[in-house]
Specification:
55% of the residues lie in helices and 12% in strands. By secondary structure, the protein is of the alpha+beta class. The strands form two sheets. The protein has a five-stranded antiparallel beta sheet, with no helix packed on it. The protein has a four-stranded antiparallel beta sheet with strand order 1-4-8-7, with no helix packed on it. Strand 2 and strand 3 (336-342) form a beta hairpin. Helix 11 runs antiparallel to helix 15 (262-276) and helix 12 runs antiparallel to helix 14. The radius of gyration is 26 Å and the shape is elongated. The model is unreliable at 168-174 and 289-299 (pLDDT under 50).
């Protein structure tokens, strides 16, 4: 996560240099790296996927500039960064789409040829990500993911005063990573003045986007979340803090390049970043690993639609009728192997969650399986039998993998031709 954190700063600086001076870009990068929510991901939540995904956000914006300028590897970077953000944390990609789209059309202002190139990169990145996206779309009906999201999002909103007011005004926000932070509030206020006095359309659009994301975080937006189901897939509003951190950093570039005594103002912002986040750097709140003795709670995102409260009741790994004996139980990461001796045909229950992809082989012959209280069940004939319970990828997953493999082959050919021919 530390490496991703550093690279996110590098990519952010290179991106900011496309819209401002080196000094304003440096200050904006510091602000971007010291947004309190980033420390929440690093030290409090330990959100590896989110930290990795946020590394690609500034790289995507940088890549759009490279494509506009006709850089040889602009499209390569754009495809890789889109692939990276989609596969590391799809939700982060989804909540940043409005920023990507608005920035592309209002700030980069592409011609039709550039639009075609970017659309090509998006489609190609989607093919590269097929191994994850296709099963997530077509097999989501087998898990309770949506029901879980609906029960989670309404518990994670912030009061307006905690989000915007600094800790010396709002004691409840003191030390909390779930706020914008004083430097961000100062920059936001300065940019608001810039919008009022300059009245540039791109500034107005950018600030309107900022206001929208602020609204989606505070408790007053709950009614909107209830009406728009798409918002449920962000899991909770606090994730929009990462988008606000990017928008405010962009504000910072424009503000510093337009104020008098910009060096002094920039030093003040950097100092505020260091002072207001010092408690994260000096004594971070680390995640404490604990081993739960209780069965998984119900419902949660890992439950299948077949499971219920009984699914997690303590039972043997393999259960059969009284007239049966189970011997030589072995297992690896997923699969299970055992021998069953039964005087009569016997139903067998294996304590593994039923899901498409499981197969059972009795003496090497595939047998029909079904689910019972969310677990795998099947019937074996009388006698002694060797049973193999094997998990393999479903047909959908195999097709998705094939698309990804084929896309990567095409991608490497594309890169090779770029290098060989030195063409745009």
């Amino acid at each position: 996560m530390s490496v991703c954190y550093i690279f996110s700063g590098i990519f952010a600086f290179l991106f900011f240099c496309n819209i401002g001076s080196n000094f304003s870009s440096f200050v904006a990068t510091i602000l971007y790296l010291f947004v309190p929510y980033k420390f929440a991901n690093l030290y409090t939540r330990g959100a590896i996927g989110e930290v990795v995904a946020l590394t690609f956000v500034p790289l995507i914006l940088l890549s759009l500039h490279l494509v506009k300028r006709g850089s040889r590897f602009g499209k390569v970077f754009l495809m890789l960064s889109l692939f990276g953000i989609i596969t590391s944390h799809t939700i982060i990609f989804l909540i940043n789409i409005p920023v990507f789209v608005i920035y592309f059309f209002y700030f980069i202002k592409p011609n039709f040829e550039i639009v075609k190139q970017v659309v090509f990169c998006v489609i190609f990145a989607t093919f590269l990500s097929s191994f994850q996206m296709i099963p997530a779309i077509f097999e989501k009906t087998f898990v309770r993911l949506e029901a879980t999201f609906l029960q989670v999002y309404d518990s994670y909103f912030l009061p307006f005063n905690q989000l915007l007011l600094p800790s010396f005004i709002n004691p409840n926000a003191s030390g909390s990573p779930f706020q914008l932070g004083l430097p961000s509030v100062v920059i936001s206020f300065a940019f608001a003045l810039l919008v009022i006095f300059k009245k540039k359309l791109k500034f107005i659009v950018l600030f309107a986007l900022f206001v929208l994301y602020v609204f989606l975080i505070i408790t007053q937006s709950q009614f909107l979340w209830c009406k728009l189901n798409l918002l449920d897939y962000s899991t909770y509003g606090l994730r929009f803090l990462s988008v606000l951190g990017l928008l405010i950093s962009i504000f910072c570039v424009y503000v510093i390049d337009r104020v008098k005594m910009k060096f002094v103002f920039g030093v003040v912002i950097i100092s505020l970043c260091l002072i207001t986040t010092r408690h994260f750097l000096l004594r971070p709140t680390q995640l404490v690993s604990t081993v739960t003795e209780d069965p998984p709670s119900f419902p949660n995102e890992f439950d299948t639609v077949f499971s219920n409260e009984i699914t997690y009741s303590p039972i043997n790994t393999v259960t059969a009728t009284v007239s049966s004996t189970i011997e030589q139980i072995n297992s690896d990461e997923l699969n299970l192997y055992f021998v069953i001796n039964s005087s009569n045909p016997s139903p067998v229950i294996v304590r593994k969650l039923y899901f498409p992809g499981w197969s059972v082989f009795v003496d090497g012959t595939k047998t029909n399986i079904s689910e019972f209280n969310g677990l795998i069940t099947f019937t074996v004939p009388a006698g002694s039998h060797k049973v193999d319970v094997i998990f393999s990828k479903s047909r959908i997953q195999q097709i998705a993998d094939l698309i990804t493999y084929s896309s990567f082959v095409a991608f490497f050919v594309f890169v090779f031709l770029k290098i060989k021919n030195k063409t745009v």
